[in-house]
Amino acid sequence: MSEVIKKQTILSGMQPTGSLHVGNLEGALRNWTNLQNDYWMYCCIVDLHALTADFKNTKPMKDKIFQMAVDFLSAGLDPEKCAIFIQSEVPQHAELHLLFSMLITVPTLTRMPTYQEKKEKLDSYGFLGYPVLQAADICLYNADKVPVGKDQEKHIWLAKDLAQRFNTIYKKTFKEPEALFTTIPLILGSDNRKMSKSLDNHIPLDFTEKQTEKRLRSFYTDPNKQRKGDPGNPEKCPIYLLHKVYTDNPENEIAPECKTGALGCVDCKMKLNVNLNDALRPIRDKRVELLKDESYVWDVLATGGERARQRAENMMEKVRSSMKISYRKKK
Ligand code: SF4
Protein backbone atom coordinates (compact mmCIF):
# COMPACT_ATOMS: atom_id res chain seq x y z
CA MET A 1 0.00 0.00 0.00
CA SER A 2 1.49 3.30 -1.02
CA GLU A 3 0.86 6.58 0.78
CA VAL A 4 1.87 8.77 -2.16
CA ILE A 5 -1.66 10.13 -2.61
CA LYS A 6 -2.38 13.04 -0.27
CA LYS A 7 -5.09 11.89 2.06
CA GLN A 8 -5.72 12.79 5.65
CA THR A 9 -5.00 10.23 8.36
CA ILE A 10 -7.45 8.77 10.81
CA LEU A 11 -6.64 6.82 13.92
CA SER A 12 -9.34 4.67 15.43
CA GLY A 13 -9.06 2.21 18.26
CA MET A 14 -11.10 -0.40 20.04
CA GLN A 15 -10.34 -2.42 23.15
CA PRO A 16 -10.15 -6.16 22.50
CA THR A 17 -13.37 -7.59 23.85
CA GLY A 18 -13.54 -10.62 21.55
CA SER A 19 -16.26 -10.98 18.96
CA LEU A 20 -18.30 -7.84 18.36
CA HIS A 21 -22.00 -7.07 18.50
CA VAL A 22 -24.57 -5.04 16.61
CA GLY A 23 -23.86 -1.98 18.78
CA ASN A 24 -20.16 -2.07 17.81
CA LEU A 25 -21.07 -2.62 14.17
CA GLU A 26 -23.45 0.31 13.89
CA GLY A 27 -21.66 2.53 16.42
CA ALA A 28 -18.17 2.29 14.93
CA LEU A 29 -17.37 -0.33 12.33
CA ARG A 30 -19.80 0.79 9.61
CA ASN A 31 -18.37 4.28 9.93
CA TRP A 32 -14.80 2.99 9.72
CA THR A 33 -15.53 0.92 6.61
CA ASN A 34 -16.86 4.07 4.93
CA LEU A 35 -13.97 6.24 6.08
CA GLN A 36 -11.34 3.83 4.77
CA ASN A 37 -12.25 4.93 1.23
CA ASP A 38 -11.35 8.56 1.87
CA TYR A 39 -8.60 8.51 4.53
CA TRP A 40 -5.49 6.62 5.49
CA MET A 41 -6.83 4.54 8.33
CA TYR A 42 -4.94 3.09 11.25
CA CYS A 43 -7.24 0.71 13.12
CA CYS A 44 -5.64 -0.17 16.40
CA ILE A 45 -6.71 -3.00 18.70
CA VAL A 46 -5.76 -1.30 21.95
CA ASP A 47 -4.66 -4.15 24.17
CA LEU A 48 -2.57 -1.84 26.42
CA HIS A 49 -5.69 0.16 27.21
CA ALA A 50 -7.49 -3.07 28.11
CA LEU A 51 -4.89 -3.68 30.84
CA THR A 52 -6.17 -0.66 32.73
CA ALA A 53 -9.42 -2.56 33.40
CA ASP A 54 -7.85 -5.98 34.08
CA PHE A 55 -4.10 -6.43 34.24
CA LYS A 56 -4.13 -9.88 35.88
CA ASN A 57 -6.32 -12.06 33.68
CA THR A 58 -4.37 -11.60 30.46
CA LYS A 59 -4.59 -15.16 29.11
CA PRO A 60 -7.82 -14.61 27.12
CA MET A 61 -6.39 -11.46 25.48
CA LYS A 62 -4.90 -13.26 22.49
CA ASP A 63 -8.18 -14.88 21.52
CA LYS A 64 -10.08 -11.63 22.10
CA ILE A 65 -7.69 -9.83 19.74
CA PHE A 66 -8.09 -12.56 17.15
CA GLN A 67 -11.90 -12.55 17.33
CA MET A 68 -12.00 -8.78 17.06
CA ALA A 69 -9.72 -8.84 14.01
CA VAL A 70 -12.00 -11.45 12.42
CA ASP A 71 -15.00 -9.17 12.94
CA PHE A 72 -13.13 -6.12 11.63
CA LEU A 73 -12.46 -8.03 8.41
CA SER A 74 -15.91 -9.62 8.27
CA ALA A 75 -17.57 -6.22 8.57
CA GLY A 76 -15.59 -4.92 5.61
CA LEU A 77 -12.37 -3.34 6.82
CA ASP A 78 -9.95 -3.83 3.95
CA PRO A 79 -6.30 -4.44 4.91
CA GLU A 80 -5.33 -2.91 1.55
CA LYS A 81 -6.90 0.36 2.64
CA CYS A 82 -6.23 0.42 6.36
CA ALA A 83 -3.59 -0.89 8.73
CA ILE A 84 -5.21 -3.18 11.28
CA PHE A 85 -2.77 -3.81 14.11
CA ILE A 86 -2.21 -4.56 17.78
CA GLN A 87 -1.18 -1.59 19.91
CA SER A 88 1.45 -3.44 21.99
CA GLU A 89 3.21 -4.55 18.79
CA VAL A 90 4.11 -0.91 18.19
CA PRO A 91 6.26 -0.04 21.23
CA GLN A 92 6.41 3.61 20.19
CA HIS A 93 2.92 4.02 21.72
CA ALA A 94 4.43 3.42 25.16
CA GLU A 95 7.40 5.70 24.44
CA LEU A 96 5.27 8.66 23.36
CA HIS A 97 2.93 8.03 26.29
CA LEU A 98 5.87 8.44 28.66
CA LEU A 99 7.07 11.64 26.99
CA PHE A 100 3.56 13.13 26.93
CA SER A 101 3.09 12.26 30.59
CA MET A 102 5.70 14.93 31.41
CA LEU A 103 3.50 17.61 29.83
CA ILE A 104 0.38 17.16 31.90
CA THR A 105 -0.49 17.60 35.55
CA VAL A 106 -2.13 15.02 37.78
CA PRO A 107 -5.08 17.34 38.65
CA THR A 108 -5.88 17.74 34.94
CA LEU A 109 -6.11 13.97 34.63
CA THR A 110 -8.14 13.49 37.80
CA ARG A 111 -10.72 15.92 36.36
CA MET A 112 -11.27 13.78 33.24
CA PRO A 113 -14.87 12.49 33.20
CA THR A 114 -13.90 8.84 32.65
CA TYR A 115 -11.58 8.94 35.65
CA GLN A 116 -14.29 10.51 37.80
CA GLU A 117 -16.79 7.84 36.71
CA LYS A 118 -14.61 4.83 37.47
CA LYS A 119 -12.06 5.97 40.07
CA GLU A 120 -13.70 3.91 42.84
CA LYS A 121 -13.05 0.72 40.86
CA LEU A 122 -9.95 1.61 38.82
CA ASP A 123 -7.54 3.77 40.75
CA SER A 124 -4.25 2.69 39.22
CA TYR A 125 -1.60 4.98 37.82
CA GLY A 126 -2.22 3.25 34.46
CA PHE A 127 -5.92 4.13 34.52
CA LEU A 128 -5.20 7.73 35.46
CA GLY A 129 -2.84 7.97 32.48
CA TYR A 130 -5.26 6.30 30.05
CA PRO A 131 -6.12 9.55 28.23
CA VAL A 132 -2.41 10.32 27.85
CA LEU A 133 -1.86 6.95 26.19
CA GLN A 134 -4.87 7.72 23.99
CA ALA A 135 -3.31 11.06 23.03
CA ALA A 136 -0.08 9.22 22.20
CA ASP A 137 -2.02 6.72 20.05
CA ILE A 138 -3.43 9.58 18.02
CA CYS A 139 -0.37 11.81 17.74
CA LEU A 140 1.98 8.92 16.94
CA TYR A 141 0.37 8.72 13.48
CA ASN A 142 0.03 12.50 13.22
CA ALA A 143 -3.66 11.80 12.77
CA ASP A 144 -5.80 14.60 11.39
CA LYS A 145 -9.02 13.16 12.69
CA VAL A 146 -10.33 10.66 15.21
CA PRO A 147 -13.82 9.22 14.78
CA VAL A 148 -15.38 9.31 18.24
CA GLY A 149 -18.67 9.60 20.04
CA LYS A 150 -19.51 12.74 21.99
CA ASP A 151 -18.53 10.97 25.23
CA GLN A 152 -14.90 10.87 24.03
CA GLU A 153 -14.75 14.55 23.08
CA LYS A 154 -12.74 15.50 26.16
CA HIS A 155 -10.07 12.90 25.33
CA ILE A 156 -9.58 14.36 21.86
CA TRP A 157 -9.35 17.79 23.45
CA LEU A 158 -6.54 16.41 25.63
CA ALA A 159 -4.69 14.97 22.61
CA LYS A 160 -4.96 18.33 20.86
CA ASP A 161 -3.80 20.11 24.00
CA LEU A 162 -0.78 17.82 24.39
CA ALA A 163 0.14 18.26 20.71
CA GLN A 164 -0.06 22.06 21.16
CA ARG A 165 2.01 22.00 24.35
CA PHE A 166 4.67 19.87 22.74
CA ASN A 167 4.79 22.13 19.67
CA THR A 168 5.10 25.22 21.88
CA ILE A 169 7.72 23.88 24.29
CA TYR A 170 9.94 22.18 21.70
CA LYS A 171 9.21 22.69 18.01
CA LYS A 172 6.21 22.28 15.74
CA THR A 173 6.10 18.53 15.34
CA PHE A 174 2.50 17.36 15.63
CA LYS A 175 -0.69 18.22 13.82
CA GLU A 176 -3.48 19.10 16.19
CA PRO A 177 -6.01 16.28 15.86
CA GLU A 178 -9.72 16.94 15.55
CA ALA A 179 -12.67 14.81 16.61
CA LEU A 180 -14.66 13.49 13.68
CA PHE A 181 -18.25 13.25 14.81
CA THR A 182 -20.59 11.29 12.63
CA THR A 183 -24.23 10.62 13.19
CA ILE A 184 -24.42 7.13 14.51
CA PRO A 185 -27.66 5.37 15.31
CA LEU A 186 -28.58 4.84 18.94
CA ILE A 187 -28.56 1.10 19.60
CA LEU A 188 -29.92 -0.16 22.90
CA GLY A 189 -29.76 -3.68 24.25
CA SER A 190 -32.41 -6.12 25.39
CA ASP A 191 -32.77 -4.31 28.75
CA ASN A 192 -33.14 -0.85 27.16
CA ARG A 193 -29.63 0.16 28.28
CA LYS A 194 -26.69 0.86 25.93
CA MET A 195 -25.89 -2.37 24.09
CA SER A 196 -22.86 -3.88 25.77
CA LYS A 197 -21.20 -7.26 26.06
CA SER A 198 -20.56 -6.74 29.77
CA LEU A 199 -24.30 -6.19 30.37
CA ASP A 200 -25.14 -9.32 28.34
CA ASN A 201 -27.90 -7.38 26.58
CA HIS A 202 -26.25 -7.55 23.16
CA ILE A 203 -26.73 -9.26 19.80
CA PRO A 204 -23.33 -10.74 18.92
CA LEU A 205 -22.36 -10.78 15.26
CA ASP A 206 -21.45 -14.45 15.66
CA PHE A 207 -24.90 -15.45 16.91
CA THR A 208 -26.77 -17.95 14.73
CA GLU A 209 -30.06 -16.81 13.24
CA LYS A 210 -31.91 -18.87 15.86
CA GLN A 211 -29.94 -17.26 18.69
CA THR A 212 -30.69 -13.84 17.22
CA GLU A 213 -34.40 -14.61 17.19
CA LYS A 214 -34.29 -15.81 20.79
CA ARG A 215 -32.44 -12.68 21.89
CA LEU A 216 -34.90 -10.40 20.07
CA ARG A 217 -37.83 -12.17 21.72
CA SER A 218 -36.33 -11.25 25.11
CA PHE A 219 -36.09 -7.53 24.23
CA TYR A 220 -37.72 -4.82 26.29
CA THR A 221 -40.58 -3.01 24.50
CA ASP A 222 -42.86 -0.12 25.41
CA PRO A 223 -44.21 -1.30 28.81
CA ASN A 224 -47.60 0.33 28.13
CA LYS A 225 -48.14 -2.01 25.20
CA GLN A 226 -48.97 -5.28 26.92
CA ARG A 227 -50.70 -7.05 24.05
CA LYS A 228 -51.65 -6.66 20.38
CA GLY A 229 -54.33 -3.97 20.18
CA ASP A 230 -52.74 -1.75 22.84
CA PRO A 231 -51.32 1.45 21.37
CA GLY A 232 -47.54 1.70 21.71
CA ASN A 233 -44.90 4.39 21.51
CA PRO A 234 -42.14 3.27 19.13
CA GLU A 235 -39.84 6.05 20.29
CA LYS A 236 -39.67 4.34 23.68
CA CYS A 237 -38.74 0.98 22.23
CA PRO A 238 -35.26 -0.45 21.48
CA ILE A 239 -36.80 -2.73 18.84
CA TYR A 240 -37.92 0.32 16.89
CA LEU A 241 -34.40 1.78 17.12
CA LEU A 242 -33.16 -1.38 15.42
CA HIS A 243 -35.92 -1.15 12.81
CA LYS A 244 -34.63 2.32 12.02
CA VAL A 245 -31.33 0.72 11.00
CA TYR A 246 -32.45 -2.55 9.46
CA THR A 247 -35.96 -1.96 8.06
CA ASP A 248 -36.75 0.17 5.03
CA ASN A 249 -39.10 3.01 5.72
CA PRO A 250 -39.93 2.14 9.37
CA GLU A 251 -41.74 5.48 9.82
CA ASN A 252 -44.44 4.14 7.50
CA GLU A 253 -44.02 0.39 7.85
CA ILE A 254 -43.74 0.02 11.65
CA ALA A 255 -44.47 3.18 13.64
CA PRO A 256 -48.11 3.82 12.56
CA GLU A 257 -49.22 0.23 13.26
CA CYS A 258 -47.39 0.23 16.60
CA LYS A 259 -49.20 3.43 17.56
CA THR A 260 -52.65 2.15 16.60
CA GLY A 261 -52.03 -1.23 18.20
CA ALA A 262 -52.54 -3.10 14.91
CA LEU A 263 -49.00 -4.48 15.17
CA GLY A 264 -48.20 -6.74 18.12
CA CYS A 265 -44.72 -6.73 19.66
CA VAL A 266 -44.00 -10.37 18.80
CA ASP A 267 -44.83 -9.81 15.11
CA CYS A 268 -42.83 -6.59 15.17
CA LYS A 269 -39.81 -8.42 16.60
CA MET A 270 -40.10 -11.16 13.99
CA LYS A 271 -40.15 -8.62 11.16
CA LEU A 272 -36.96 -7.18 12.60
CA ASN A 273 -35.54 -10.67 12.99
CA VAL A 274 -35.84 -11.30 9.24
CA ASN A 275 -34.27 -7.97 8.29
CA LEU A 276 -31.50 -8.13 10.87
CA ASN A 277 -30.50 -11.65 9.94
CA ASP A 278 -30.54 -10.70 6.24
CA ALA A 279 -28.20 -7.80 6.97
CA LEU A 280 -25.84 -9.83 9.16
CA ARG A 281 -25.69 -12.90 6.92
CA PRO A 282 -22.81 -11.70 4.67
CA ILE A 283 -20.79 -10.71 7.75
CA ARG A 284 -21.43 -14.06 9.38
CA ASP A 285 -20.56 -15.93 6.19
CA LYS A 286 -17.29 -14.03 5.90
CA ARG A 287 -16.61 -14.80 9.57
CA VAL A 288 -16.97 -18.53 8.93
CA GLU A 289 -14.60 -18.27 5.96
CA LEU A 290 -11.97 -16.39 7.97
CA LEU A 291 -12.10 -18.88 10.82
CA LYS A 292 -11.00 -21.57 8.35
CA ASP A 293 -7.76 -19.66 7.78
CA GLU A 294 -6.52 -18.28 11.09
CA SER A 295 -3.04 -17.65 9.71
CA TYR A 296 -4.47 -15.14 7.21
CA VAL A 297 -5.93 -13.09 10.08
CA TRP A 298 -2.64 -13.13 12.00
CA ASP A 299 -0.81 -12.16 8.79
CA VAL A 300 -3.13 -9.16 8.38
CA LEU A 301 -2.28 -8.09 11.94
CA ALA A 302 1.43 -8.62 11.36
CA THR A 303 1.43 -6.62 8.12
CA GLY A 304 -0.65 -3.87 9.71
CA GLY A 305 1.77 -3.81 12.66
CA GLU A 306 4.75 -3.48 10.34
CA ARG A 307 3.17 -0.56 8.54
CA ALA A 308 2.15 1.10 11.81
CA ARG A 309 5.65 0.65 13.30
CA GLN A 310 7.26 2.30 10.28
CA ARG A 311 5.00 5.31 10.49
CA ALA A 312 5.32 5.47 14.28
CA GLU A 313 9.12 5.29 14.21
CA ASN A 314 9.29 8.06 11.60
CA MET A 315 7.24 10.20 13.94
CA MET A 316 9.28 9.26 17.02
CA GLU A 317 12.50 10.23 15.24
CA LYS A 318 11.00 13.70 14.75
CA VAL A 319 9.82 13.79 18.37
CA ARG A 320 13.23 12.81 19.79
CA SER A 321 14.92 15.29 17.51
CA SER A 322 12.53 18.11 18.52
CA MET A 323 13.22 17.31 22.18
CA LYS A 324 16.94 17.04 21.53
CA ILE A 325 17.05 13.58 23.05
CA SER A 326 18.28 11.92 19.88
CA TYR A 327 21.87 10.93 20.63
CA ARG A 328 22.83 8.41 17.99
CA LYS A 329 24.48 9.50 14.77
CA LYS A 330 22.29 8.94 11.74
CA LYS A 331 23.69 6.16 9.54
S1 SF4 B 1 -44.93 -2.88 18.23
FE1 SF4 B 1 -42.73 -2.89 17.83
S2 SF4 B 1 -42.09 -0.78 18.04
FE2 SF4 B 1 -44.11 -0.97 19.00
S3 SF4 B 1 -43.66 -1.31 21.17
FE3 SF4 B 1 -43.94 -3.32 20.18
S4 SF4 B 1 -41.88 -3.96 19.60
FE4 SF4 B 1 -41.80 -1.77 20.02
Describe the structure.
This protein has 331 residues and is mainly alpha-helical. The chain folds into 2 domains: 9-186 and 294-323, 3-Layer(aba) Sandwich (Rossmann fold); 209-288, Tyrosyl-Transfer RNA Synthetase, CATH 1.10.240.10. Helices cover 51% and strands 7% of the residues. It contains 15 helices and 5 strands. The protein has helices at residues 22-35, 47-51, 61-74, 92-101, 106-110, 113-118, 125-128, 130-139, 153-169, 209-217, 238-246, 250-253, 255-260, 265-291, 294-323; strands at 9-14, 40-45, 82-86, 145-147, 178-180. The strands form 2 sheets. It has a 3-stranded parallel β-sheet with strand order 1-2-3. α9 (153-169) links the parallel β4 and β5. α3 crosses α14, α3 (61-74) crosses α15 and α4 runs parallel beside α15 (294-323). The longest helix has 30 residues, at 294-323. It is elongated. It starts with 8 loop residues before the first strand and ends in an 8-residue tail after the last helix. The model has no long low-confidence stretch (mean pLDDT 94). Iron/sulfur cluster binds next to α11 and α14. Residues 221-222, 225, 232, 234, 237, 239-240, 254, 258, 263, 265, 268-269 line the site of iron/sulfur cluster.
